[in-house]
Every structure is written in C-alpha cells, then in structure tokens.
TrEMBL record:
Organism: Sporolactobacillus terrae
Stored Pfam families: Aminotran_1_2, GntR
Database matches in SMART domains: HTH_GNTR
Protein name (record): Putative HTH-type transcriptional regulator YdfD
Domain HTH gntR-type: 9-77
Length: 478
C-alpha cells in the first residue's frame, strides 16, 4: 500500500486505517498474527515509532492485542464487535491443517522474489530475457482451431502430448509408450502425487544430503521421514545405500543425478550403474528427478537411470519449466503402467487434469522443434552466465570461499570459509536488496554454504550482488 505522504492525514492514521480495513474485511481474521513491527516498518517504509503509534490506536479500539512472547494478534473485528459475537478463530484451523507451512526463510524468499528492487541470486528459474516469449506467442496464434480443446483431457493427459513426449524421451534412450506417461502440472506435483499415492505415512525416504527436498514439505506433510545419505562432487554415494535401507526400512530413493539441486553435481555413468545395481538387489524403487538434464553446458550428461533400467524400478520425472517456461506448468512421470494409472486417478481427484491449453502448447513446442531449438539457446546463454559468475567468484570470493564449477544446471554450491550465522547473512543480504538461498535450506548442517544461481539475474546484477555480498560477509565475519 503506497502511503500518501503529502496528505494531511498522518502516516500512522493511514497505516491504522489500512490494518483496520484488513480486519474488517476478514482478511486478517480473529487469532491471526500481525507481522512484526520491524516488518511493518519495512513494508510501509516508515520508522518503527510510526508503526507503534498505529498499533496502539488499534489496540485501544479493541481490534488487536499484544501478547508477551506471542507477538500482536487480531482479537476481534468490526463486524463481530457490532454483532456481539465471537469471531471464528481461523488460526486454529490453519494450524490443524495436514500440510506443513513453508520454512520461514522460504516464505520470505517467495515474497522477496516479487520485489523489483531485489537481485535474485538464488532463484531456480530462467530470467524473463531467456524465455521464448515472441516465438511462443507466434506458435499459439498459429494453432489450428481443430486442435483447440477447452474441455477436460483424459486422466493421463492429452494423448497428442503423451505421444510427443514418447518421441522426445526416445532421443534420450527412454522407451516409454504414451500409456506409461502421466502429464502433471510441473515436477513438484509429480512428487506430491507419488508421496500421497504410493507411500504410507511413516515411510522412510532415502536421499542425498544436501537435497532440494529438504526445502519443501511435500513428503514431510504426509508424515514421512528423510534419511540423508552422504554425497560428494559426483552426487549421491551408493556405498552406504543398502545398509541405510535395511537399518531405517527405506521404501524409496530420491535422486537428481544430472546437475543436482542445490549442489550442481553430475553423477558419472559408473556411479549410476552402481546405484541401479544396489537398488535392484535391495528392491528399492527410485524417483529420478531429471528436470535439469537438457541444461548441460560442457557436454551431454551420461544416460539417465531410467534409460538403463531394465526392471521397471525407476519412476522418471521431467519438466519443461527449466527450459521453456516455469509458468507453463507442464511436467511428466514415466513408470510402469499400473503405477501411472494409480497416480492418474489421484491427479483426477485433485485437479481433474492439467490445463488443456498448456498441454496443447507444450505438444506444439515439441512437434515444431521450438523446445529443442530453445534448449540449445538456453544452454549457450547459461554457459556464458555460469562463466561470468565463476569469474566474479574468483574476483570477490577467492579468499572467502571455495566452489566446484558445475557442468550444467543453474547452480554453484559456494562454501564460505568464515563461519557466519546463515540467518544473519540472509537478512543482511536482503536489506541490501540481494536475495540468496542459504545452504541450511537443503541441509541443516550446511551452515557455511550458499546456493548461487546464474539463471535469473543479469550479468550486471550478478556483479552488483557479489560486490555487496563480499562486503556483508567481511562485516559479519569480524
């Protein structure tokens, strides 16, 4: 809400009226916790004293109440005061929900990503300037009306898209008929369907540590626990896999063998074969998350686990989000037909199928070659951006950190040499309009690490960000 600073109405009154309107409209219901005074001051760009004055006035009206150790909460609404009735405590319902909220730091990241002043050095998506906006618009305009469908698609997804995906996957050595492919709304939904449709509450999921899955609560919200396995610059190490599976009763393995998130590691072919062999012996199914596969920068990655799988042990997850458009929300799962049918049934219960228009556009991108053409363009641009960020690290962090140069994907896993509280570093960087992803989001013990992305920020923004980060790290290290 932009304050009218030239208005005769004092700033505290404008803020007071804004909050009162939120309460009156039911947007901030009884029991809801208000943002902190510091957060409100930052949001309105005023001093904390102005916020305190506004909150004291609202408290005098009986709308909010400060609680020792519990922050400030809404205790009533204009409507309920008039009606002399107790308002519904929606906070009780919110806290009782099955799905866990995002980590506070993740919530802040999600909000800050929409602040145009912030340089996004951790964002896992392509910069708008790397998206094929014009070509995509032309492709959609050229669509035949005969292909256009505004109705629901069949449970596994539009057949013409699954046929196109079947042909596309074959170029990577994956033989999957359309009947063994499920179209999903991005890779995250694929994981949600697997967690709710195939795994029991209390199941143990094995994964590398650090891992992207620690930063989201897809599996934890359904009562599953994670068993972290050691990893190195070549990804997950299979040596301890069998012992961990038996000790912790692991039911499934999750891995990103090609350009891991967050470390950027690439698993070599020999290790992939070892991993497959152990999992087959232990009858341990695998979720292969391969969304970064086409983003190789130096050389194509080794064959996917799925392409080497001869026992139907691998569920393969792919997506168009990392190459074509995060907003298109088209991904896929490849697996045994019985599993795909089970997951398709659950997807129908949750959203009745992915967008028909998005599926049609995705199929046309594959059919016309736009997807493959754009993937080549993105690889070229990411190679230049990666090299630029590596140069900046040599310039500004040669004495403050160490890193491996990734051969693909979006990320550099930077290890800081000074021991700095990751939360303090995150907050300090954000105050200087630099958004970072601390390593603790992916492994609580990774307190010295940062996941840096070269996919979103411009070359100039990267340099500004790294200059600011160096200064912040030096200040916090003293």
């Amino acid at each position: 809400m932009p304050l009218k600073r030239q208005s005769a109405i004092p700033l505290y009154r404008q803020i007071q009226d804004y909050i009162a309107e939120k309460i009156k409209n039911g947007e901030w219901a009884s029991g809801a916790k208000l943002p902190s005074q510091r957060a409100l001051a930052s949001f309105f760009h005023v001093n904390r004293s102005t916020i305190i004055t506004a909150l004291e006035s609202l408290a005098a009206q009986g709308l909010i109440e400060g609680r020792r150790g519990g922050g400030t909460r809404v205790i009533n609404s204009t409507w309920s005061l008039m009606a002399q009735k107790k308002a519904t405590d929606w906070g009780t319902y919110v806290e009782a929900g099955r799905y866990k909220p995002n980590l506070p730091m993740i919530q802040k990241i999600n909000q800050a990503e929409f602040n145009p002043r912030v340089i996004r050095m951790g964002t896992g998506e392509l910069s708008p300037e790397l998206l094929p906006s014009e070509k995509f618009t032309e492709l959609v305009k050229a669509l035949s009306p005969n292909l256009l469908s505004l109705g629901y698609q069949e449970p596994k997804g539009a057949l013409h898209l699954r046929e196109a995906l079947s042909r596309h996957l074959k170029t990577d050595g994956i033989n999957a008929s359309p009947s063994s492919i499920l179209v999903v709304s991005g890779a995250l939904q694929a994981l949600q369907l697997i967690s709710s449709g195939l795994l029991d509450r209390g199941s143990s999921l094995l994964l590398a540590k650090p891992s992207y899955l620690y930063s989201v609560h897809v599996f934890q919200s359904l009562g599953m626990r994670f068993i972290g396995l050691p990893s190195d610059h070549e990804g997950l190490q299979p040596e301890r896999l069998a012992a961990c599976k038996r000790k912790y009763h692991g039911v499934i393995l999750y891995t990103i063998p090609s350009f891991d998130n967050p470390t950027g590691a690439l698993m070599p072919e020999k290790r992939r074969q070892q991993l497959l062999s152990v999992c087959q012996q232990e009858q341990l199914p695998i979720i292969e998350d391969d969304v970064y596969r086409e983003l190789w920068l130096d050389a194509p990655p080794p064959p996917s686990l799925k392409s080497m799988d001869r026992s139907g042990n691998v569920l393969y997850v792919g997506s168009m989000s990392k190459v074509l458009s995060a907003g298109l929300r088209i991904g896929w799962i490849v697996g045994p037909e019985a599993v795909i049918e089970r997951l398709a049934d659950i997807k129908m219960q949750s959203d009745y199928g992915s967008s028909s228009l998005a599926q049609l556009a995705a199929a046309e991108c594959l059919r016309t070659g736009l997807y493959q053409e754009h993937a080549a363009f993105v690889r070229k641009q990411l190679r230049m951006r990666r090299n630029h960020l590596v140069d900046l690290l040599h310039t500004y962090f040669a004495d403050l950190g160490q890193w491996q140069i990734p051969s693909g994907g979006f990320y550099i896993w930077l290890e800081l040499l000074p021991a700095i509280d990751p939360k303090l570093l995150f907050e300090a960087a954000l105050r200087h309009d630099v958004l970072i992803n601390p390593g603790v989001l992916y492994d609580r013990s990774a307190r010295r690490y940062l996941r840096l992305s070269y996919a979103y920020a411009s070359l100039q923004e990267m340099e500004q960000a790294m200059q600011r980060l160096r200064k912040i790290v030096l200040e916090l290290a003293n």
